[in-house]
Amino acid sequence: MAESLPSLAFLGAGSMGGAILRGVVASGIRIDGGITATNRTPEKAAAFDDVDGVTSIALSEQPEGNADAVAGARIVLVGVKPAMVPDLLREIAPHLADDAIVVSLAAGVTLQTFADVLGEDARVIRSMPNTPSTVRRGVAGLAAGASATAEDLALVRRLFETVGAVVEVPESQIDALGTISGSGPAYVYLLIEEFTKAAVGLGFSDADARLMAEQTFIGATALLEASGEDPAELRRRVTSPKGTTERAIAVLQDARLDRTFSDAAAAALARSKELAAGA
């Protein structure tokens, strides 16, 4: 595992880019050449005043800031809104180093879009991180473009491993990955919401219901991680024969949760395809 990472530029260090930036710094890994981040306003740029080793640029005050940021960067992370990506790529193309690796954080923007502007030889990797990256418990999908080398992918993998787990996929699987790890946190929060409502319905106060529901989910997943067991095995250990949990699980299984989750993932994937087509 690499002991250091090369110089980094975060273009558009918003919620996701900022989370990854902070995760890299929090991990303590050495950055050879430092980190530069750009945002539109001084207010957004000031968000990194408390982060050691980061040069934060406000583009309203330094219009050439993106060009300046990429000029000295080995890894360039593109975190602007998807619609802004082509213009940004045109802006930075003349300033990229020959060995620069360009990493997309922009949902729905294809590797081909990057190749169209930067050229087919550009070393591009498309990523799909998720919001738990902000607490260094994320899952990121990585899809390498044709010109990215194995070493390029290994470097970018190391970068994302500072904020969680990494799954390498072909680009054709990136949208499907997004329906699981990208949208998945929302599914979990929905389950906790409904579990909390069930507790309130049993007569508990809102505060106690929320505490019980949230900590039960947090505790269960912590036990899953610590034990290394299969979730089905842990479920069996809680489910005594002819007991109360068995009766509850039967109700959930009768509700066809298996089909519900697969239908939800399919719906998310269908919408992803619509968005890619401009619908």
From TrEMBL:
Belongs to the pyrroline-5-carboxylate reductase family. Residues 8-108 form the Pyrroline-5-carboxylate reductase catalytic N-terminal domain. This is Pyrroline-5-carboxylate reductase. One of its GO terms (molecular function) is pyrroline-5-carboxylate reductase activity. It catalyses: L-proline + NADP(+) = (S)-1-pyrroline-5-carboxylate + NADPH + 2 H(+); L-proline + NAD(+) = (S)-1-pyrroline-5-carboxylate + NADH + 2 H(+). It comes from Microbacterium luteolum (Aureobacterium luteolum). Keywords: Amino-acid biosynthesis, Cytoplasm, NADP, Oxidoreductase, Proline biosynthesis. Pfam families: F420_oxidored, P5CR_dimer. Residues 171-275 form the Pyrroline-5-carboxylate reductase dimerisation domain. It is found in: Cytoplasm. Pathway: Amino-acid biosynthesis; L-proline biosynthesis; L-proline from L-glutamate 5-semialdehyde: step 1/1. Catalyzes the reduction of 1-pyrroline-5-carboxylate (PCA) to L-proline. Its EC number is 1.5.1.2.
